[in-house]
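Memo to structure team: turn this sequence into structure tokens by end of day. - J.P.
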Amino acid sequence: MAIKNRVLLLEEKVELIRRRLSKCDICPRNCRVNRLKNEKGYCQAQENAVVYSAFLHHGEEPAISGSRGSGTIFFSGCSLKCIYCQNYKFSHYLKGTILSCEKLGKVMLNLQNQGAHNINLVTPTHFLPQILGALLTATEGGFDIPLVYNTSGFEKKEIIALIDGIIDIYLVDLKYLRSSSGEKYSRAKDYPHFASESIKEMYRQVKNAKLDKGLLKKGLVIRHLVLPGLVAESKKILNWIKKNTPEAFVSVMFQYQPYFKANTCLNINRRIELSEYREIKALSEKLKLKGWVQNFTPREELAGVYFKPKLEI
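Reply from structure team:
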């Protein structure tokens, strides 16, 4: 998108979404707290964005990380808070640096100046108004690389529709299609509804993917983290993707570890077994899904539990 057009679109959207903070309903939790007066809801976020770390990340999908890395900004807090989250140090707790929109915009520009292929916003939803304000600052300062919206999938379709034309790449999880799983592991029995509807809206916006020398410039990547013992649900999810978003890229992930509170849950207190891996990989190949299937033993050091606070402004 031309810089001038993006500025005009951001100016239109930023205040529109920011006003929602007075009775916050940006995510499906619908807490209705006044974050502009520092009231706290489920995510614990208040008026300003909180960032745990920002760096050139080489552990995303090849079309995102490329050779120079993805300019990844890890936001603190989360509206979902899964019991097995590998980023729990900062997603379950608001640990990080409080940034104004201007400073967050400078972080984006700094990552671009370091050679980032894109700016990758991880868990952005609860800070969406602040991100749009920062993006306006960054765009006016010369920001011109793709913007990646890296989300759990627990989104409102109406909010995703509001950022149509601003986001270049959606990198979205599809965790569950059973309400019982959403409730048990993420305290969100309505996750399947919100994730499936918002993903279809993302697909509508960026269905026609653009690749340049192996790098994604526009498109939808749907991630699915396979959980132990939930092979039937994973199969249901892959079939749903094939039926509803056939042109999307799919990233099937096997990096699950029983992080955080997962050890307390008998169903998911172990790694994936080789037989489970083979079964899901075979289905992915049978469905001829575009994208990537992670190795059975991925690099563990790329998990969020190993990230250190890092921020350059």
